TrEMBL record:
High-level lineage: Eukaryota, Metazoa, Ecdysozoa, Arthropoda, Hexapoda
Protein's UniProt keywords contain Cytoplasm: yes
Protein's UniProt keywords contain RNA-binding: no
Keywords tagged on the record: Cytoplasm
GO terms, biological process: post-embryonic development
Recorded family membership: Belongs to the UPF0456 family.
Coiled coil feature spans: none
UniProt-listed Pfam families: P_C10 (PF14974)
Cellular localisation: Cytoplasm
Name the UniProt record assigns to this protein: Protein C10
Main location: cytoplasm
Superkingdom of this protein's organism: Eukaryota
Length: 116
């Protein structure tokens, strides 16, 4: 857990930027485009096809930065980022960019919204 001793806002930003760069590499970008095409606009299909790809890429990146390359490492990293983004708008912006890959924008019609 020595990686936590040096983990701060700057290293968090660096890891997030590395994740974005990894996602945008030609091979990864192609795989994600194909997964998105298969999913269409169906959220369940996005979670089935796109989300696992993004999580795998994130695992590869955080492992290079000393985090465990497994689910627990990803959960730990995500929790740290969520805490940091409250006070750092750049971390929040970078995290939002990553989330936008697998969580498409949802159009809400506010004039016809009905709470059930």
């Amino acid at each position: 857990m020595s990686y936590l001793a040096s983990f701060n806002n700057e290293s968090a930003k660096q890891i997030l930027m590395d994740i974005i760069r990894t996602v945008n590499q030609p091979d990864n970008s192609k795989k994600l485009s194909e997964a998105k095409a298969s999913a269409g606009k169906e959220m369940i299909l996005m979670m089935q096809y796109v989300f696992p790809l993004v999580m795998q890429l994130q695992l590869e990146v955080i492992k290079m930065h000393g985090f465990p390359g497994n689910r627990e490492g990803l959960v730990q990293f995500s929790q740290l980022i969520r805490e940091m983004e409250r006070d750092d708008t750049e971390i929040a912006r970078l995290r939002s960019q990553i989330r936008a890959i697998y969580l498409p924008p949802i159009a809400i019609n506010t004039t016809n919204d009905i709470l059930i």
